[in-house]
Design goal:
Blueprint: H1 29-41, H2 44-50, H3 58-67, H4 69-86, H5 90-102, H6 123-128, E1 129-139, E2 142-152, H7 155-165, H8 181-188
Antiparallel strand pairs: 1-2
Length: 189
């Protein structure tokens, strides 16, 4: 039996990734940039444009990139790392939604109906306020009072999000099955 000649090295690049190569390195530079930009505002179309993809096809490109397993893995890992860094948990989000849903605007006013100063408002109320507008009323240059408008974050939206989390609003599909009279009788025999 003769010996076999030595094999020539392949000119094709190896498909195996070196040990320790990160997922981010598996992405193209544009994909990596897209993943970073997506984390800024979670807006795929804008992230695609900021990453250098065509504005015309940015929405489709973003959709494709976000379904790419490599890109999705990088985005998900970065989001999880960010959540860990800022110590935000799903429970925190649900608590805030519940706080908004339960807030009573009456807590913003004293017994006389005057708006409380912010420092005197309960903390839970301050967290539920989206804006306060104060307007000074004057007649002939003399102040005669103020009008304060307090706007809370969207209570119905908070309730909707909580309801979705609790699966209260699951769409139900009703199937209507009609059998021919003969088919029903045949099934009984």
């Amino acid at each position: 039996m003769g010996s076999t000649p030595p094999r020539k090295p392949s000119s094709r690049p190896s498909r195996k990734k070196p040990a320790g190569e990160s997922r981010a390195q598996a992405l193209t530079p544009k994909q990596e940039r897209f993943a970073q930009e997506y984390l800024v505002d979670l807006n795929g179309k804008q992230a695609a444009m900021r990453a250098g993809y065509s504005e015309r096809g940015a929405e489709v490109t973003a959709s494709k990139l976000l379904t790419n397993p490599k890109v999705r893995a990088v985005v998900d890992a970065a989001k999880a790392a960010r959540a860990e860094r800022v110590e935000v948990k799903a429970d925190d989000v649900l608590r805030e939604l519940l706080l908004i849903a339960r807030t009573d605007i009456g807590d913003a006013f004293n017994q006389d109906g005057a708006l409380l100063p912010l420092k005197e408002m309960p903390a839970h109320l301050r967290r539920a306020i989206s804006s306060i507008e104060v307007e000074q009323l004057a007649v002939d240059g003399a102040a005669i009072g103020t009008v304060a408008k307090v706007k809370l974050w969207d209570k119905p939206k908070s309730l909707e999000l909580l309801g979705k989390h609790l699966r209260l609003f699951v769409d139900k599909v009703e199937a209507v099955v009609q059998h021919q009279h003969e088919d029903a009788l045949g099934a009984l025999e």
